[in-house]
Known about the structure:
- The structure holds two protein chains of two kinds.
- By secondary structure, chain A is mainly α.
- Chain A contains seven helices and no strands.
- By secondary structure, chain B is an alpha/beta fold.
- In chain B, the strands form two sheets. A four-stranded mixed beta sheet of chain B has the order 3-2-1-4.
- The interface between A and B is medium-sized, with 21 and 25 residues.
Amino acid sequence: MATVVPPFECFYAAHRAEVLGFLGRRLGRDRAEDAFQETFLRALRAYPRLEHGEHLRAWVLTIASRIVLDDVRRRRPPTTSDIDELPELADEHGRLPPFEELAPLTDGLPPTERAAVVLRYGYDLGYDEIGAALGSTEAAARQAASAGVRRLRKEQP
Amino acid sequence: MNEFSLALDERFRAAAVAEGLLDVAYDVLADTPIGPLLVGVTDHGVCRIWFDPEPERDLETLARLHGSRVLRASAPVDRVRRELDEYFAGRRQHFDVEPDVRAQPAYNQRVLAELARVEYGTTTTYGTLAAQSGNPRAARAVGTVMNRNPVPIVLPCHRVVGASGSLTGYAGGLDRKERLLRLEGALL
Lengths: 157, 188
């Protein structure tokens, strides 16, 4: 049975230290402060649409990664290494969440399409949730995911 | 958490409040004359006051009744905190903050609305309150509603006693009921 979505306070208390550590390593302390707030505000906006309490750690780290990408991209043109900035997602038992299996397949996609494909097909989020997590809209998330899938198909030998 | 992340933590909580993103803001009032209280507030008023808080259990109840965006944040609770301080100091006889009982069953809401009219320093009985709520024989049901009152003190279930004048019962313990009635001068 799917677990119930915990009260936001419990979710926040469980993950804030790790999110801040991740953001600090990627962005440095000063920029991490704004990114920290933005990560949890985005999570809070999307929170009522979560249908269960699974993979919340991976979910919030995905939001944080996306904010890192946005921040980095604002400061200089993106490079391919940005795409590899997703954090280590294994849980405490060393298991990877299902969507990590998609990671190698989606490596070559542009960041937005990659995030949308992984969240949609690996994590089974709705487009409204993906839009909220990526700081864009439901329509934009749908478009990014389908563009990503088309690109993957084209790249199949 | 170190100093840096404590400031950051407070900043996030304040931003969540400022954006209106919370279903319930709560805080623990650590030292009142009747012990610690956990106070929950929605956009519609104070939705919960718990004696002897157990945050793990209490937050889950708040999330189930009001929505999952439950976050500790002091500013939204300030008004209740101030009014309770004044009440305990004997400087307030009526609460201006609205109780939010929307999550309660319809019958409970009717009884709690009658309870809200019982004035400071007076007492009533379960039977009287039952009659005022539409059924004179429902004294026992009224007792259950009092026991489950989500916002004690603000909705004064401590002012409801047995027909014989005995204190009968109180979800927060009879000691607290007696203490509140003494504070109000309803008991000598």
